[in-house]
Amino acid sequence: MTLAEERLGQQHLDVAKLRNYLAYLYRTQARYDEAEVFCKQALEIRQNLLEKDDPLIADSLNQLGLVYSDKGNYLEAKKMYTQALEIAQKSLDSQHFNVANYMTNLANLYLQEQQYNEAEILYQQAIEIYEKHQDNLYLAVSLNNLARLYDAQENYIKAEPLYQKALDLFKTCLGEEHPDIATCLSNLAFIYAYEGELGKAETLYLQSLEMQQKILGNHHPNVAFTLNDLAGFYQGQQRYPEALKLYQQALAILEDKLGKDHSYTIKIFDNICALNQKMI
Question: Count of CB atoms within 10 A of residue 183's CB?
Answer without folding.
Answer: 23
